[in-house]
Amino acid sequence: MKNFKLLKNPKEAYDLLYKITSIDIYKKTRVRQVIEHRAFFCYILRTKFKMTYEGIAQYLSVHSKIKSYNHATAINSCNKFVIYRRYELEYWEALESHFNVSSQFEYSQLSKLLGIQENFIELEKKHVEALNTIKEYEIERFDGYTQNELEYRKLDKEQKQQYDERAKMVLKSFEWKKPKDDYEVITCAS
């Protein structure tokens, strides 16, 4: 009896299939051999890894060159494989015997995980947009302030108190430059 390695994830299943058959099921092609082996791969993902059709579709969309792979295509592939299997039963059974799967991870949850990942990415985009909006608001809020006024906002309470005392003296020094409301009227004799 041969010792077979337990497969832990779909990537290992793909690698094993490619190693045994030299057929790249990730290619975007309508060659019969590729289609039949891709259907076999979907069947393995469904029966051995217990993946949902949506999970199979998402996995193949991400890893293969076929970006239009959806759950209906995955269902069709699994159903077609049952037909392909009838005509070459010995070949497909021999090939399937190599695919022993470790049940460490529940792959039926893969589509949920991918959905959560997509939601996280969406939230991250919204978070970045919100941060950019806040930064724009900050720029508008401080637009027109001098560099000293911006630096003042970074001071602690004690430093602000010292700054205010010194600024008060500077402002008082400008009072002599202001015009006074009382003017002396000088009349000239004509």
Can you characterise this structure?
- This protein has 190 residues and is mainly alpha-helical.
- It has eight helices and two strands.
- The protein has two domains: 103 residues; 60 residues, no CATH class.
- The protein has a two-stranded parallel sheet with strand order 1-2.
- The radius of gyration is 37 Å and the shape is rod-shaped.
- The model has no long low-confidence stretch (mean pLDDT 80).
Sum this structure up briefly.
With 190 residues, this protein is mostly helical. It has helices at 10-21, 32-47, 53-63, 71-87, 89-96, 110-141, 147-152, 157-173; strands at residues 6-7, 100-101.
Which tags fit this structure?
single chain; 190 residues; two-stranded parallel sheet; 8 helices; 2 strands; rod-shaped
- Which range best describes the helical content: under 10%, 10-25%, 25-40%, 40-55%, 55-70% or over 70%? 55-70%
Task: State the major sheet.
Answer: 2 strands, parallel
Figure out the total of helices: 8
Order of helices and strands: EHHHHHEHHH
The domain tally reads: 2
Mean of pLDDT: 80
Low-confidence stretches: none
* Assembly state of the chains shown: single chain
Q: How is the topology of this model organized?
A:
Elements: E1 6-7, H1 10-21, H2 32-47, H3 53-63, H4 71-87, H5 89-96, E2 100-101, H6 110-141, H7 147-152, H8 157-173
Parallel strand pairs: 1-2
Helix pairs in contact: 1-2, 2-4, 3-4, 3-6, 4-5
